[in-house]
Design goal:
Distance between the termini: 75 Å
Oligomer: single chain
Number of helices: 2
Structural class: mainly beta
Shape: globular
Radius of gyration: 23 Å
Length: about 475
């Protein structure tokens, strides 16, 4: 008599748990704009959420420790003239965030470590090149200052944020609206999904499609695709009967999926979040009230269902913490930031372990904040794996590093191929340079003075609180 053997996996008993009420972020007016982006971006220092805003687009940035009720006058990041559609933290600088908007621009912002007194309105750099709204942005995983943007003009643009220049424009590859774009582990390839029902693997530097799959899922609803660490492709989509599906593809044989599973019947697009260290994919549907998670292995059936975290409230969006922001002492392997209508609720995924010691098998070395390449090196054809760090002693975020933008003279180089928006104004003359430098120095000095005063006010408020607490 044969007995069924249960598959061995250290992640079989992973469970999700919401934090206590006082550790949530309350009174946040989450954006109601119609877009399939996650509306939330998280790193070890901050949580950023796209919010409702009159007269343009805005998002709020909160220090992770600033939980509880958010002051209605809390400063926002405002600079876009239309709703913000996507935000993404730079993987190599925890104080730099990019935002994409309906106003066709991409803006990159420097967020201070302290809470500013007023709205942040001046981006470090504004990137203009799209002719329609920009709904997708994604930083390069290993090269410094390389940012990707994709818009409703069916155009993918790669930028060097350090110079404000367009590096590459992939303009003849997509015939319809782009649903999502994802990098592989070392940033040498892109995977894109499109309304024309095709999944494309693109080499951006050669500007060519390396592989293509027509109709990976038969349904008409949007498809999502991400790279696995070993180069396989994971997709989510819909069947002809509107059942939600997931599939795993091997690029060496892109004709048939090596795994295909049907899940349920629902309208929400499944957003996949991937942890390369544990090889777990988490699926969060917009409008769902659950997070399903699967382990990806090298042996059939390749995709193994682990469990489902369920709650009562549907999610408006979801943020996913990088591995270096997790609490290794509690065997935390993932942390989500679930957006409700008026709050953000962190959800912690934990592997139950009895020992308090560091668990080597749960925390292999993970990508750290140092870039492996410069933008020019990557553009010239170099590739490099992410620089890994150990989490044995926990991760301490690096202090604020300023993003410096050095604009080149546009007369020195011919503009890169691809549609460009017309820029108003004229080129600076050589005679204007000293005067401009003086103005910039004066602005920098004023900023430093304001920051010093803000810090002093904050210190005085803290002393006042201590004084009043002592006299009560």
């Amino acid at each position: 008599m044969s007995r069924r053997v249960v598959r061995q996996s250290k992640f079989r008993h992973v469970f999700g748990q919401p934090v206590k009420a006082d550790q949530m972020y309350e009174d946040i007016r989450v954006s109601k704009v119609t877009c399939d982006s996650s509306f939330c971006a998280v790193n070890p220092k901050f949580v950023a959420i796209i919010v409702e805003s009159g007269g343009g687009g805005a998002f709020i940035v909160l220090p992770l420790a600033k939980t509880g009720r958010v002051d209605k006058n809390h400063p926002l990041v405002t600079g876009h003239t239309a709703p913000v559609l996507d935000i993404d933290w730079c993987p190599h600088n925890d104080n730099v965030i990019a935002s994409a908007s309906e106003d066709t621009t991409v803006m990159v912002w420097q967020i201070p470590d302290y809470v500013p007194m007023r709205n942040i309105t001046e981006p470090v750099v504004t990137l203009e090149g799209h002719s329609k709204r920009v709904s997708i942005i994604s930083w390069h995983p290993t090269a410094r200052n390389v940012l990707l943007s994709a818009g409703c003009d069916n155009l993918v643009i790669l930028w060097n944020v350090g110079t404000g220049e367009m590096l590459l424009a992939l303009d003849d590859m997509h015939t319809d609206l782009i649903y999502n774009v994802g990098w592989n582990r070392n940033g040498s390839l892109l995977v894109t999904t499109c309304k024309d029902k095709k999944v494309r693997i693109i080499d951006p530097r050669k500007q060519q499609v390396v592989a293509e799959k027509d109709k990976p899922h038969d349904g008409v609803r949007p498809i999502r695709a991400i790279f696995m660490a070993d180069g396989k492709i994971f997709t989510t989509g819909f069947s002809k009967m509107s059942e939600r599906q997931l599939a795993l593809w091997d690029l060496n044989n892109f004709e048939e999926p090596i795994a295909l599973q049907e899940m349920d019947t629902s309208n929400g697009v499944l957003l996949p979040f991937y942890d390369a260290d544990s090889n777990i994919v988490y699926l969060c549907g917009k409008g769902d009230s659950s997070i399903r998670y699967f382990e990806i292995t090298d042996e059939a059936p390749y995709v193994h269902y682990l469990n489902t975290y369920s709650s009562k409230e549907p999610q408006r969006g979801m943020g996913f913490m990088p591995k270096r922001g997790l609490d290794v002492s509690k065997c935390e392997i993932a942390r989500f930031f679930k957006l409700h209508e008026r709050k953000c609720e962190p959800i912690v995924m934990t592997v139950p372990r009895k020992s308090d010691l560091f668990q080597d098998d749960l925390y292999p070395d993970t990508p750290g904040p140092e870039p492996a390449l410069e933008a020019d090196e990557w553009l010239s054809g170099k590739d490099a794996e992410p620089i890994l760090i150990s989490l044995r002693d926990g991760y301490v975020p690096i202090k604020n590093r300023e993003l410096k933008v050095v604009k080149k003279n546009i007369l020195d180089n011919k503009p890169p191929p691809g549609p460009r928006r017309s820029h108003s104004g004229c080129d600076p003359n050589v005679s204007q340079q000293p005067a401009l430098q003086e103005v910039l120095e004066e602005i920098r000095a004023l900023k430093e003075t304001v920051q010093a005063h803000e810090k002093r006010i904050s210190d005085l408020e803290n002393k006042l609180c201590q004084f009043t607490n002592g006299t009560d």
